[in-house]
């Protein structure tokens, strides 16, 4: 049985423009120890997907799904009490900006202790030792004295390490990381990503990494799911996807990353336009107004996600084996 | 040869910081920074947060009096504060976050009119014409001039910020992390726009960024800053393809790229630890605490910025020299 099995997830928000689907029918399956990246531009629904798995969508948002099975229990239908026992314990999450997700009024030690106290029955002394071990595991020097430090006394990278320590404090089976390094410098980003990778491997922890940076994807995960306007457009093994993207959107995303010097009047390849707003979704394929391969069929009919041999793509004209630059 | 547009000579800036009721420390934000920007040249300034990039930008706009050093414009010494206004007319800046740098209560028209009122002596009709022309050249519809910033997406707001910077016809454009808050696809659009405008207006440009891939696309020259000191300064194609300073090399190695997936062992080229506090800079070479190739001499003696194979470099044991050994 898969660790996480999400079937037909839909998240909608009631607005002045009616009911809008930020996530429109998504399936996610994740085995224990596997890592998956969800990639997309802002507005593609990647954060909403992760929040809905965590059960953190609030009014006016509404989550509908056939099921969200985590270790065999349906997260959508468990009681609030049971749900709280799972969150931060077997299922935990780290957020984008560490300095705004730590509480400035409590010390690092108190914030790590909070999760341990809630989910374990150990003595205060044992919890303290556990907190020290955790800080050591995430590579914070001098962990004993750091327990008494306040978030403002640590740098962004250190705070993100603390967030990771809190998230892994109860040995979660699944960690969701929502853009964990966007607010950090590249040198620190490399440290944090390899820490996450190493923790995933040593603890057999599955991970969902939400990112817009395909470079980060290339170095960390097993599988990639590309989202566009609330739908999965392509999903495949990391290497298959990066070497042979089949959806024009995936390929365009990869091409728009600057690489190398431009000669004379040469310009970067771009995706024209932008992600459509949810109340003005185009008919047919949602990507067609920005796609250079679009034809009449794309404008009129909605492509289904075609699953073929461990990878899937939502396109009428998937790209063949084309070398990307 | 005519003198460069802007010459920066041994610029230094420190800030007093209160450490306690009776103790004041000196934060060395910039020390001994020298470089020049030629007409129609683009210089990229690269460094982590805390390296003094933004302090340098403030100095170039003459927002603060430097503690030491001088600026020359086309060979003429700029005096503080007499020449501030003329310098600010010639030098315009684009900021990182387009959500914060535009006044939310002003219409786009008013935002663009403000620099014209302050720095140019046009009639209202001339201003109107210039504003509409400018909006058009940054790819916005002049019909949108009476909208407010919140009605635009991130990429469009950055276009407005660019229009605002260029409307009075500056000679030098300073872009402080101008594209790092944007999605890759939008980032490519904005970079292309900047390349076009720089060419069309014959601008010199200082591009402050931490993203090496952006530097490759934009810059003729690159200056690597670490803790307020210049580590390496030279032609962008040379520095980026053959870095000689270990810090530059690490920055390049840390940048995730999808075309090198799995090619490198993650911990091989990582930097240990954070950037040290500028209040208490390390002895000797400021980078020695994080350098993997540190030797005794680096801990004691501060390397001077010297001419080395056509670029300037501050390292006792440059990369290639060691490789040869």
Care to give the gist of this entry?
The complex is a heterodimer of chains A (325) and B (325). Chain A is α/β, with parallel strands linked by helices.
What does this protein structure show overall?
The complex is a heterodimer of chains A (325) and B (325). Chain A is built from 12 helices and 13 strands. With 325 residues, chain A is α/β, with parallel strands linked by helices. In chain A, the strands form 2 sheets. An 8-stranded mixed sheet of chain A has the order 7-8-9-3-10-11-13-12, with helices on both faces. In chain A, helix 4 packs across helix 5 and helix 4 packs parallel to helix 7. The longest helix of chain A has 18 residues. Chain B has one domain: 3-Layer(aba) Sandwich (Rossmann fold). Helices cover 32% and strands 23% of the residues of chain B. Chain B is built from 11 helices and 12 strands. Chains A and B meet through helix 7, helix 8, helix 9, helix 10 and helix 11 of A and helix 6, helix 7 and helix 9 of B.
Give the number of helices of chain B: 11
The CATH superfamily of chain B is P-loop containing nucleotide triphosphate hydrolases
Average pLDDT rating of chain A: 89
Binned strand content of chain B: 15-25%
- CATH-defined architecture of chain B: 3-Layer(aba) Sandwich
Features:
heterodimer; A: 325 residues; alpha/beta; five-stranded antiparallel beta sheet; 23% strand; disordered C terminus; B: 325 residues; Rossmann fold; 32% helix; globular
Helix/strand layout:
The complex is a heterodimer of chains A (325) and B (325).
Chain A: E1 4-15, E2 18-30, E3 35-39, H1 46-54, E4 61-64, E5 67-70, E6 73-74, H2 80-86, E7 91-94, H3 98-101, H4 108-119, H5 124-137, H6 143-146, H7 156-167, E8 174-178, H8 186-203, E9 206-211, H9 214-220, E10 223-228, E11 231-237, H10 238-243, H11 248-255, H12 296-300, E12 306-308, E13 311-313
Parallel strand pairs in A: 3-9, 3-10, 7-8, 8-9
Antiparallel strand pairs in A: 1-2, 1-4, 1-5, 5-6, 10-11, 11-13, 12-13
Helix pairs in contact in A: 4-5, 4-7, 5-7, 7-8
Chain B: E1 6-18, E2 24-37, E3 42-46, H1 53-60, E4 68-73, E5 76-77, H2 84-90, E6 91-94, H3 108-119, H4 124-137, H5 154-166, E7 172-176, H6 184-201, E8 204-209, H7 212-218, E9 221-226, E10 229-235, H8 236-241, H9 246-254, H10 296-300, E11 306-308, E12 311-313, H11 319-324
Parallel strand pairs in B: 3-8, 3-9, 6-7, 7-8
Antiparallel strand pairs in B: 1-2, 1-4, 4-5, 9-10, 10-12, 11-12
Helix pairs in contact in B: 3-5, 4-5, 5-6
């Amino acid at each position: 049985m898969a660790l996480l099995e999400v079937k037909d997830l839909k998240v909608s928000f009631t607005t002045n423009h009616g009911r809008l689907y930020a996530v429109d029918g998504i399936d996610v399956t994740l085995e224990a120890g596997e890592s998956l990246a969800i990639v997309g531009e802002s507005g593609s629904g990647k954060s909403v997907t992760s929040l809905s798995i965590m059960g953190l969508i609030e009014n006016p948002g509404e989550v509908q799904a056939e099921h969200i099975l985590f270790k065999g229990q349906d997260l959508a239908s468990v009681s609030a009490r049971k749900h709280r026992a799972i969150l931060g314990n077997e299922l935990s999450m780290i957020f984008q900006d560490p300095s705004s997700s730590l509480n400035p009024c409590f010390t690092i030690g108190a914030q790590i202790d909070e999760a341990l106290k809630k989910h374990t029955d150990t003595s205060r002394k044992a919890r303290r030792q556990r907190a020290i071990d955790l800080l050591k595991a995430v590579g914070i020097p001098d962990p004993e004295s750091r327990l008494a430090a306040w978030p403002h006394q640590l740098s962004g990278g250190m705070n993100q390490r603390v967030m990771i320590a809190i998230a892994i404090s109860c040995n979660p089976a699944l960690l969701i990381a929502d853009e964990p390094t966007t607010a950090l410098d590249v040198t620190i980003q490399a440290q944090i990503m390899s820490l996450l990778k190493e923790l995933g491997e040593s603890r057999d922890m599955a991970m969902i990494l939400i990112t817009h940076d395909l470079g980060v994807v290339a170095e960390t995960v097993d599988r990639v799911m590309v989202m566009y306007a609330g739908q999965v457009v392509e999903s495949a093994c990391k290497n298959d996807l990066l070497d042979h993207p089949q959806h024009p959107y995936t390929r365009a995303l990869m091409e728009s990353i600057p690489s190398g010097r431009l000669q004379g009047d040469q310009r970067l390849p771009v995706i024209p336009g932008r992600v459509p707003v949810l109340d003005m979704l185009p008919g047919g394929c949602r990507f067609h107004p920005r796609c250079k391969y679009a034809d009449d069929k794309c404008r009129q009919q909605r492509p289904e996600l075609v699953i073929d041999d461990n990878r899937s793509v939502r396109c009428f004209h998937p790209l063949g084996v084309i070398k990307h630059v | 040869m005519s003198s460069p547009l802007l010459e920066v000579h041994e610029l230094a800036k420190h800030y007093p910081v209160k450490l306690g009721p009776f103790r004041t420390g000196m934060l060395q934000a910039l020390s001994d920074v020298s470089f020049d920007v030629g007409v129609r040249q683009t210089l990229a300034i690269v460094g982590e947060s805390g390296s003094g990039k933004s302090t340098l930008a403030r100095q170039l706009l003459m927002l603060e009096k430097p503690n030491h050093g001088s600026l020359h414009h086309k060979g003429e010494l700029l005096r503080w504060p007499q020449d501030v206004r003329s310098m600010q007319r010639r030098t315009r800046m684009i900021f990182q976050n387009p959500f914060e740098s535009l006044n939310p209560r002003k219409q786009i028209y008013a935002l663009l009119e403000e620099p014209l009122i302050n720095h140019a002596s046009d009639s209202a009709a001339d201003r109107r014409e210039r504003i509409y022309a400018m909006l058009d050249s940054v790819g916005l519809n002049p019909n949108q001039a009476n909208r407010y910033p919140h009605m635009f997406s991130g990429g469009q707001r950055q276009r407005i910020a660019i229009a605002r910077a260029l409307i009075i016809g500056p000679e030098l454009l300073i872009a402080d992390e101008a594209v790092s808050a944007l999605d890759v696809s939008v980032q490519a659009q904005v970079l292309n726009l900047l390349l076009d405008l720089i060419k069309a207006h014959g601008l010199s440009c200082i591009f402050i960024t931490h993203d090496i891939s952006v530097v490759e696309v934009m810059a003729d020259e690159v200056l690597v800053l670490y803790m307020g000191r210049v580590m390496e300064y030279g032609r962008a194609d040379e520095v980026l393809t053959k870095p000689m300073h270990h810090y530059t090399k690490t920055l390049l190695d840390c940048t995730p790229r999808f075309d090198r997936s799995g090619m490198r062992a993650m911990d091989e080229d990582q930097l240990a630890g954070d950037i040290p506090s500028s209040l208490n800079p390390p002895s000797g070479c400021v980078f020695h605490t994080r350098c993997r190739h540190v030797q005794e001499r680096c801990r004691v003696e501060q390397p001077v910025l010297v001419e080395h194979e056509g670029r300037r470099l501050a390292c006792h044991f440059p990369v290639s020299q060691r490789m040869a050994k």
